[in-house]
Amino acid sequence: MNQNADPDEHRHPIRVVTERTGLSPEVLRAWERRYRAVTPARGDGGHRLYSDREIERLKLLVRATGAGRSVASVVDLPPAELSRLVAEDESQRVARPASGAAHVGLAMEAVADFDPTRLESILRRALLSLGAAQFLATVLAPLLDRIGEEWHAGELTIAHEHAASTVVERLLGWLLHELLPGDPAPRLLMATPAGERHGIGALMAAAAAAVDGWQITWLGTDLPAAEISSAARRDGPDLVGLSIASGGVRGGMAHEVAAVRKGIPSDTPLLVGGIGAQALPALAGVVPVRDLSHWQALLRTHTPPHLVST
Fold first, then answer.
1. CATH 1.20.1330.10 fits 11-91, yes or no
2. SS3 annotation, the chain
């Protein structure tokens, strides 16, 4: 719902809006694009400008979604009704964590209780309040490490791990859908090689790239080198990324990675990350990735010069 602003109202750039509302820029843009939560004006240079009234409406929407409601269910409510609903929700509300570690603690409780619905709610609230970049670094990555550690220690079952993985994969898929880049944007083709069926690491890497403005082509898991290479030659990405999650590299994994390297254009960088990638032998033309922060640094290094923001 668009609240028409008085032309005499003050107008504010997106940085001011994110500071006043707590929304991350990517979530704010997604709300504009998908739900028409507000329709900002445009300045002389084409940048968004928001009225005081629009900022107040966004604050109410943040409070409503923070109480557990979906933005789609409240975005069309008139201001008075939205304010009433928010006040009612907050009168019944209990305190929730503000830090990544606190969100991880609540999420682990939901995992241990085998409650995927509660887990998804906790993760979505963390994403909304922290923004995508901080969510990935301070909530999702530590959470997945904790789940892996407790599974190996016998404190969680395979069923616990699979239920949590399903939630995380669904959330990451949604996040990739929401983080559509502007045009032009550097292009990343992401997959896991044949024999690797775990896709969460690859999806996290893709989401981190999307936060940095990359356009993502997600091919999926367990793909033969010929299929990955064919897609790369056809689509011409600026970068190809592979993820190997397995702790021990199965026979032939190095061969698959080498085959991808040979099959894609020689000037297209190939980055390979994940726990299993650490056990790969050194391969010519293949850049190993240590962790998520290293991946993000490499993305910036490999962004084509004509697409680097100034």
1. no
2. CCCCCCCCCCEECHHHHHHHHCCCHHHHHHHHHHHCCCCCEECCCCCEEEEHHHHHHHHHHHHHHHCCCCHHHHCCCCHHHHHHHHHHHHHCCCCCCCCHHHHHHHHHHHHHCCCHHHHHHHHHHHHHHHCHHHHHHHHHHHHHHHHHHHHHCCCCCHHHHHHHHHHHHHHHHHHHHHCCCCCCCCEEEEEEECCCCCCHHHHHHHHHHHHCCCEEEEEEEEECHHHHHHHHHHHCCCEEEEECCCCCCCCCHHHHHHHHHHHCCCCCCEEEECHHHHHCCCCCCEEECCCHHHHHHHHHHHCCHHHCCC
